[in-house]
Structure formats: structure tokens, C-alpha cells
Write a structure and sequence with these properties.
Blueprint (H helix, E strand, L loop, with lengths): L7 H12 L3 H14 L4 E7 L5 E6 L9 H4 L11 H5 L10 H8 L1 E7 L6 E5 L5 E4 L4 E7 L6 H4 L5 H18 L4 E6 L2 E6 L4 H9 L1 H5 L1 E8 L6 E8 L11 E5 L2 E2 L3 H11 L11 E7 L4 E2 L10 E2 L2 H17 L12 H15 L18 H10 L10 H4 L26 H6 L33 E6 L3 E5 L3 E6 H18 L5 E11 L2 H9 L1 H6 L3 E6 L2 E8 L7 H14 L3 H19 L9 H13 L13 E5 H7 L5
Parallel strand pairs: 1-7, 11-13
Antiparallel strand pairs: 1-2, 2-6, 3-4, 3-6, 4-5, 7-8, 9-10, 10-13, 11-12, 14-15, 16-17, 17-18, 18-22, 19-21, 20-21
Helix pairs in contact: 1-5, 2-7, 7-8, 10-11, 12-13, 16-20, 17-19, 19-20
The protein binds adenosine-5'-diphosphate (ADP) and magnesium ion.
Adenosine-5'-diphosphate (ADP) binds next to helix 2 and helix 5.
Length: 649
């Protein structure tokens, strides 16, 4: 075939192939236009999931009759006139091809009356015929029988319900971006959603549900940059509220809904400490920056953008989320805790620790307000006593456990080698010395302290292990259940992070290196990242073209699964090549290491080992959540237990 220019209609249909995939794409384009026209209320009427009809009515500025024929013309737009403007465009649309594209694959009609005009006119998209009509100022765009002329594309449409769901999602995105605009949505003659104009918080509650609002934290941060700053604000869901699908993640750049890898990575890295890899946090985030620093013209549907300063955006988003997530969460205390008490405890903790250490995030389970003195004992003062504890409850299984009758001390006797009690091992030589764990910053000034009573330990005194998975402990409120593996993983992870920050992950040389068959990628990664690996306490050497050897391991993880550890660290490193990414990925890697180095389920622990873990959890930041976002412990109060047995009812 000779080279020919394509007819206009065909060009538009080709463009439609890129821009208009399904009814929801039409909804998106029409809403963009209505918002650009300054609408304060938009109503959307759909028939048969939008396949039969999509009618968008707005009270925006309208279109003068002289311009109506242009609206359907390809590359006709009122929004930009020069390349300069393309750089700084602040509107939703600007390519001037949406209406032309839609008109090439559906039956379209515009009915519009400009705000300053007294007459309404309508135009038929197919014939271009103009006629007088009547309506209030604003525009109505009607799109009927989508793809009626392109049966091949119509075949790809899903059921009406599925298409309707996609349309609703498109409206949700616009509605979240513009809480100041009211929306009503009708389907087959029924009103299905109505969102009044209001604040962002109100809009989020209306669109995503009250649950979302209750389970999210406000985000607000402005990062100063050489180009005028990046502001990140909105709401981010608590880790507990993360979902198995990434279906409640809304990110807007200068008011436009986008999906962006840099932002996605920043979000993931902010949640990495508290969320399971397969869970997806929920959020509504707005990123605002100088329009010339972002290119919104890289994708036909404008859903992808390109940042000139990706790392500043990354940093802004990550920091904004980190500070929102690490804010103390009052009001999230366990069942019976009185919020006022929790505050007291928080204050006491603050007073005791002053600027020396961060306040632990868990709610205080203590029935009485904690005193600073208690905190001091808790953090720095408990003794390591070499005497094994008599276990009175073991003698008679039905005797009620009596906390006061037992010496409330942690013993170092049968320790889990390489486990969570390395700190205790290190200090076992001086058993009478009160000992501070390495991460519990305040070292007690006194050499001997009173033995604290079990009741002041928030996580209580270990009673038993259940099926090799859970630790049962008794505290003042009742029963504590601990997921052993999850808890230990958290403790190890925080220790690794602390030593990483101090650039001193201690590692242990293996007398007999562990060699293993490795893929070419693993070998290349081991070579390329040799020094990073060393910083992580992991020394690998290349044995041959097909094998590697582990020569040293982080001391904390010496008893873990070395092979699995090496393999997964290599896999993570291979994914993150650049040095900057590596910096960001460090926590991912530490989490992986902690996972492989932690005590596995089905390992029998002695009571002293269990107690040591409980004490370490108390001293560990964020110990109430494992690295994967699962809770590490739960309190069952006596009241809860009484309820189970219908006592006193
Ligand atoms: P773009 O939005 O990229 O400019 P469109 O094809 O979506 O291109 O729209 C073409 C033009 O029609 C717009 O530039 C605008 O001037 C006008 N227009 C479309 N919809 C509306 C509306 N709801 N209210 C006012 N003007 C509109
Ligand atoms: Mg448009």
C-alpha cells in the first residue's frame, strides 16, 4: 500500500483506542472537563453501566454557541495556546482530543448555556447540527451507545455491574480530589451516591466510609526544596487497617489522580516496618508542587506523570508518612485501659526517659497510673538473677497462679543460644549488677535495686508455652498472649536497625563456611555489593562460577537459617541496584534478616527464656507489631475471661 494520510475520523478512532477503553474512561474525561469549567455541582447519570448512556451535567461556565462546533474537533482546546503553557498547565485536560475521540466511538450531544449568555444551544456530534434548547447556565454532555460503531471494542466490555463499578471508581477519584464540589450519581434512574461539598475529612468519610476515617491518621508535611517546596498532605491508614488489595490508595499530584512508581515506593518504604509485604496500606495523599517540576503530558489518560525531582518527591512522601505513622496513637489502647490513664503513663514515660529515649508506642496496661520510678525500674532496673524460679503453678495445675509468691526476676540460666537474650548472656557474668539492655538507654545509677513486682511488667510473667507458638503470661490485668515468632522478629529487627544506624552490626566469623549453589545473578550481586553486605554483617565469597560461601553472619542471627538469609538478602539487593535505592532498601533487608534469624514456631522455650523475651519486648520500640504488621501480643483481661465463663452475670 502507498503512504496515505489517514482521514480525521480514523485518527480520532485511533486516539479513542488509547484514551477511551470503557465507560469509566468517558466518565473520567467528562468530569475533568466539568471541573475545568469551574462546576460546583456535577451530576452523573448512567444507564446499563454507562454502556447505554453517560450523561454529565454541570453548573460550570458553559460553552458559547460559536465554540460548540469546535468542542468536537480534534486538537481543539480552550486550555493551552503555546508550548510554554503546556509546561505549567494547571487544568485537568489540555490535549484537546477527548471529546473528539469520544464522539468518534459514540453518539454525542452537548447542551450548554454560558454563564454570561441567556440562550442555551445544543449540538449533535454526528451531524454537527445546532439547535436552540433551554437549560440553566452550565453544560450537559450526553454520550450514548459507546462503541456502537466499533463492535470489536464493545465485545471487550464486561458486565454492566463491572462497568458501573469502574465508573464509580472514576468518580471517587475526582470526588476525593475535589471535596469542594458536590456530586450525585444515578444509575438506571436510581440515585446511588450523593456527596455534598464539604471538608476533605467529610468527603473521605462519605466516599471511603467512616471506618477509613476512624482508622487513618492525618498527614501534613512540607519539604523545603530549591524549587519552592513539596507539600504532602491527606490521610494515611493505620497498618492494622491495611488491605489485601491495593484498592484504597489515592494519590493526587496537583489535584490530578496519578499512579507513580516513585510515590508507590516511598509509601512502601514508609510502611515497611509495620506492614506485611502482601498487605496494602490505604491512603489519600495530595502532593503539591510547582507545576513546571512535573510533566503531566506523558500519558494519554494523564494517569502517569514524570517528576523532575524524583528523589525530593520520594523523600517528602516518605517523611510525611513516617511522621504521621510514628505519632503517638492515643485512644487506641487495649480494651479496658482508661484513656486518661494511658495519657498518664505516656506522660510518666516521657518524664522518666526525658530526651534519652523514644516512648514505647504500646498502650499502658497498668491498672494504676505509672510512676516515673516504675518506668525507671522497668527500663533500666530489673535484675538478672541466676536462680531458676520455682514454678508453683506447675506443681498443681489447678492452683491459681500467684504472682506475689514468686520471685519476679529474670534468670539467665538456660538461654536460647543466639536468640533474643544475647544481652542477658553478655551480662550473666555479673549477675548481681542491675543491667540495662543495650537499647534501653538509661543506665541505672544504682547498683542494686529492689526487685520489681511482676505486676509492674506490662507484659507480665511467663506461665507457659502453647503448642510451640504462643507464650502465655500473667500480668495485673489478666492474661497476655504473645506470638513468639512475631515478637522475636520485631525485637531482632529493632536491634538490627539500631546497630545499623550506629554502623556497627557485629558479625561472627564461621569456622566452617557454608557453601551453596548460586545463580549467576546471585554471584554477580554478591560481588557487586560486597561492601554493603559486609555492613550488614554478612560476608559472602565467590567459590566458583556456580557457588558462593557464607563466611560470616550477623551475630544476632547466628542461629537462624543462614542459607535462606543469604539468598533472600541477595534477592533484595538484586532488585535495588543504585546506591541511593540501597539506602532506602536497608530496612527491607533488615526485616528479611530478622525474619530468618528469629526464633521459629515450635521451638520449646524455658520460662526464663520466655520472660527474657517479654522484657525485651517491653524495651523495644513498636513491639506491639511485628515487621509484617501482625500484632505480636494481645491482652485478655480478667473481665474478658469472666465474660467467657459468664461469671458474675
Ligand atoms: P481538553 O479538555 O483537553 O481541552 P476536550 O476535548 O475534553 O479537550 O474538550 C474540548 C474543549 O471543550 C475544552 O477545551 C473546553 O473548552 C470545552 N468543554 C468541554 N467540556 C466542557 C464543559 N463541561 N464546560 C465547559 N467547556 C467544556
Ligand atoms: Mg478534556
Amino acid at each position: 500500500m502507498p503512504i496515505r494520510e489517514l482521514p480525521d475520523e480514523l485518527i480520532s478512532q485511533i486516539a479513542a483506542g488509547e484514551v477511551i477503553e470503557r465507560p469509566a474512561s468517558v466518565v473520567r474525561e467528562l468530569l475533568d472537563n466539568a471541573l475545568d469549567a469551574g462546576a460546583s455541582h456535577i451530576s452523573l447519570r448512567l444507564q446499563a453501566g454507562g454502556v447505554r448512556a453517560i450523561i454529565v451535567e454541570d453548573d460550570g461556565k458553559g460553552i458559547p454557541v460559536a465554540e460548540l462546533p469546535l468542542a468536537f474537533k480534534r486538537h481543539a482546546t480552550s486550555k493551552i495556546s503555546s508550548l510554554d503553557e503546556l509546561e505549567s498547565v494547571a487544568t485537568m485536560g489540555f490535549r484537546g482530543e477527548a471529546l473528539a475521540a469520544i464522539n468518534s466511538v459514540a453518539d454525542c450531544r452537548i447542551n450548554s448555556r454560558p454563564h454570561d449568555g441567556d440562550a442555551a444551544w445544543q449540538i449533535d456530534g454526528r451531524t454537527g447540527e445546532l439547535s436552540r434548547s433551554s437549560r440553566n447556565p452550565g453544560s450537559t454532555i450526553e454520550v450514548k451507545e459507546l462503541f456502537f460503531s466499533v463492535p470489536a471494542r464493545r465485545k471487550f466490555l464486561k458486565s454492566d455491574n463491572t462497568e458501573l463499578a469502574h465508573c464509580l471508581e472514576a468518580v471517587r477519584r475526582h470526588a476525593l480530589a475535589r471535596p469542594d464540589v458536590g456530586f450525585s450519581i444515578w444509575h438506571d434512574g436510581k440515585l446511588i451516591e450523593q456527596w455534598r461539598a464539604g471538608s476533605l475529612a467529610e468527603r473521605i468519610a462519605a466516599v471511603l466510609g467512616a471506618e477509613f476515617s476512624a482508622q487513618s491518621l492525618p498527614v501534613e508535611l512540607t519539604l523545603a526544596t530549591s524549587f519552592g517546596g513539596v507539600r504532602v498532605h491527606g490521610f494515611a491508614g493505620l497498618p492494622d487497617f491495611a488491605r489485601s488489595r491495593a484498592d484504597q490508595q489515592y494519590c493526587f499530584v496537583n489535584g490530578r489522580f496519578v499512579r507513580d512508581k516513585t510515590i508507590a515506593h516511598a509509601v512502601r518504604s514508609a510502611y515497611e516496618d509495620v506492614l506485611h509485604g502482601h498487605k496494602h496500606p490505604v491512603f489519600v495523599l495530595f502532593i503539591e508542587l510547582e507545576p513546571t517540576r512535573v510533566d503531566v503530558n506523558v500519558h494519554p489518560t494523564k494517569i502517569e506523570v514524570r517528576f523532575r525531582d524524583g528523589s525530593a518527591i520520594h523523600q517528602a512522601v516518605r517523611n510525611a508518612l513516617l511522621s504521621a505513622l510514628s505519632a503517638p496513637r492515643t485512644g487506641r489502647s487495649t480494651a479496658e485501659a482508661d484513656p486518661a490513664e494511658a495519657d498518664d503513663a505516656e506522660a510518666a514515660a516521657q518524664a522518666a526517659l526525658q530526651s534519652t529515649h523514644k516512648t514505647p508506642h504500646w498502650p499502658a496496661p497498668s491498672p494504676r497510673p505509672w510512676r516515673a520510678q516504675d518506668m525507671e525500674q522497668l527500663w533500666g532496673g530489673f535484675r538478672l538473677d541466676a536462680q531458676p524460679q520455682p514454678n508453683s503453678s506447675a506443681a498443681s495445675p489447678f492452683a491459681p497462679p500467684n504472682a506475689a509468691a514468686q520471685p519476679a526476676a529474670v534468670t539467665t540460666a538456660p538461654l536460647l543460644a543466639g536468640g533474643f537474650d544475647t544481652a542477658a548472656v553478655a551480662t550473666a557474668a555479673a549477675p548481681t549488677e542491675a543491667t540495662a539492655l543495650p537499647y534501653a538507654a538509661p543506665t541505672p545509677a544504682y547498683a542494686s535495686v529492689q526487685e520489681p513486682e511482676a505486676e509492674i511488667w506490662p507484659l507480665g510473667r511467663a506461665l507457659a508455652q502453647l503448642h510451640g507458638i504462643y507464650i502465655l503470661a500473667e500480668n495485673a490485668q489478666g492474661l497476655i498472649l504473645v506470638d513468639m515468632h512475631a515478637a522475636h522478629e520485631r525485637v531482632v529487627y529493632e536491634q538490627l536497625k539500631t546497630s545499623m544506624a550506629a554502623q556497627n552490626i557485629s558479625s561472627q566469623h564461621l569456622l566452617v563456611p557454608i557453601s551453596f549453589a548460586a545463580t549467576p545473578t546471585e554471584i554477580a550481586t554478591a560481588e557487586e555489593h560486597h561492601s554493603s553486605l559486609q555492613a550488614l554483617g554478612l560476608e559472602l565469597s565467590v567459590l566458583s562460577r556456580q557457588s558462593l560461601a557464607i563466611r560470616s553472619l550477623p551475630s544476632l542471627l547466628i542461629k537462624g537459617d543462614a542459607l535462606a538469609l543469604a539468598r533472600s538478602v541477595l534477592a533484595e539487593l538484586a532488585e535495588h541496584d543504585a546506591a541511593t535505592v540501597l539506602q532506602r532498601a536497608q530496612h527491607d533487608i533488615l526485616a528479611t534478616m530478622a525474619c530468618h534469624g528469629s526464633v521459629r514456631a515450635n521451638r520449646q522455650l524455658t520460662l526464663p527464656e520466655m520472660n527474657a523475651l517479654l522484657r525485651q519486648m517491653e524495651a523495644t520500640e513498636r513491639a506491639d507489631q511485628c515487621n509484617h504488621g501482625r500484632p505480636t501480643w494481645k491482652q485478655l483481661s480478667l473481665k474478658d475471661l469472666d465474660k467467657l465463663f459468664l461469671r458474675g452475670q
